[in-house]
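Hey, sorry to bother you again with one of my protein questions. I've been staring at a protein lately and its backbone has me curious. I owe you a coffee for this, so here goes:
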Amino acid sequence: MHLQAAPARAILCRMWENLNQIADPEDLSISDARRSILARLGDYAALVIGPLNLRPRTATLHTSTNDRIEVRVSTVSSHILLVIAPVGDLAAEAYWLRALAAANLPIPRLLAHDLGCTLVPFSYTIESYTSGAPLDWVADAPRMRVLARQLGRTLRRAHQSTAAGFGRPLVNGRWPAFTTPPARPSASGGNVTTWRTHRTVLTTCKPL
């Protein structure tokens, strides 16, 4: 049994190691944060995905930008996506994935997340992988109209969901508290509308 497990572990180690990438040092478009993560991407992926006991078969770099890195991990029957924020956090994404899941929309499902950088030096989520193709790949006009109507219905359902506050959620899941600043003089000499009035108007709108 141990002899069978050893080759499997070796294959798994090679799979993660193949994700480690040394970015071109002359490419100034790559941020330091992105460069640092890519250099140890496989190590980080193994660290956060390993405890899930998914028995992955393949892991590939799906997206790599200064704002977002995605790794697609495939098992025998499904795919998942490790989403990494080289800078900032994924608090808004995690919140809306949870909020919209109840509406049964065709969106990724949030499987796990760490927004506080407790395990690795960046914010990440683990989501189900949703495959598809861009709409501009569809050449058939009647089919495009059908897809456009489906998209419109989906967006309408998504816009019916409301948030617990205004702005964006914090890493701890709470929403920032707003205070009323003093009125500022307008160009005409009067006072501009106070923040309290603005807030009343804004909170009557359903966020995207």
Observations:
- The helical segments are 2-17, 32-39, 41-49, 91-101, 141-158, 195-202.
- Residues 2-132 form a domain with the Phosphorylase Kinase; domain 1 fold (CATH 3.30.200.20).
- The chain has two domains: 2-132, 179-208.
